[in-house]
Amino acid sequence: MNLRALLLASAVSGALFSVGAQAAELTIGFSQIGSESGWRAAETTVSKAEAKKRNINFKIADAQQKQENQIKAIRSFVAQGVDAIFLAPVVATGWDAVLKEAQEAKIPVVLLDRDIDPAGKNLYLTAVTSDSVHEGKVAGQWLVKTAGGKPCNVVELQGTVGASVATNRKKGFEDGIAGASNVKIVRSQTGDFTRAKGKEVMESFIKAEGGGKTICAVYAHNDDMMVGAIQAMKEAGLKPGTEILTVSIDAVPDIFKAMAAGEANATVELTPNMAGPAFDAVIAYKTKGTMPPKWIQTESKLYTQADNPMAVYESKKDLGY
Ligand code: AHR
């Protein structure tokens, strides 16, 4: 290639993909939901560590559970001209306007751990999430198997109202128990993914269900709410893990501690490392123009008391949960 052709080629490819851009040059803003759960805290810690590994200038804005704060943070990242924006959307709706602003500024957005409504699909580059319908289904199927045909009244602690993972985990669980007429959800209420609300709502379920005597199982959309519910059951003189079955989602260290003590039965793991695959997708997109798949799916694994919960607790306890 002669010099003129070479200059032309590099100008064209430079304009398209910022050829030669290295992770060290990238600045990425992350609009994080807050710190409602142990899982969320771990996701923040792991994201920072993954950014450091790749030498990325990483800016985190904590929205304290408020969508309006997330919208402000995205606008501020757009104004700063960051190279990409990560968004963990607290709820599924209400993103169109702000994501269009990011798109007009040619800033790719990556969704982490939660989805937005399918109508917004063209407004983000990729989503790194688990299959949250599947998580609920795994929990429901585990319960059907464990109840073994006996009548089983279930109380459900839902996540944040309007969050994709709450809607999906509810649906998945209902699918999982659909073929078992002995397993029924008798009460269902949001505990907003927090330990304190999980405990409070469980206390009201216990009161409403004859001191808890008519409850066979608790299904919680996350482990933190289950840890709160376990506390409520113990304070009411009930025996979670034996008299009342428990199944929840996240696989945080404290649920393994409860499992090791015989006070919890099962959890479905959600990896806190959503940012690692997201950084790699953005780097490949920025440096080579590689389009990532629209959905980068993370694994979901069921753990029960048979999986040496104390060893799992030890392996996870220092990971930032
Ligand atoms: O979006 C993931 C969910 O958010 C986690 O399961 C829960 O703990 C967190 O609050």
Note down, in words, how this protein is organized:
The chain is an alpha/beta fold and 321 residues long. The chain has two domains: 3-130 and 272-290, Rossmann fold (3-Layer(aba) Sandwich), CATH 3.40.50.2300; 132-270 and 305-316, Response regulator (Rossmann fold), CATH 3.40.50. Helix content is 44%, strand content 19%. The chain is built from eleven helices and twelve strands. The strands form two sheets. It has a six-stranded parallel sheet with strand order 2-1-3-4-5-11, with helices on both faces. A six-stranded mixed sheet has the order 7-6-8-9-10-12, with helices on both faces. Helix 2 (38-53) links the parallel strand 1 and strand 2 (57-62). Helix 7 crosses helix 8 (223-235). The longest helix is centred in the N-terminal third of the chain and has 16 residues, at 38-53. The protein starts with a helix and ends in a 5-residue tail after the last helix. The model is unreliable at 1-21 (pLDDT under 50). The chain binds alpha-L-arabinofuranose. The site of alpha-L-arabinofuranose (AHR) has 13 residues, from helix 2 and strand 9.
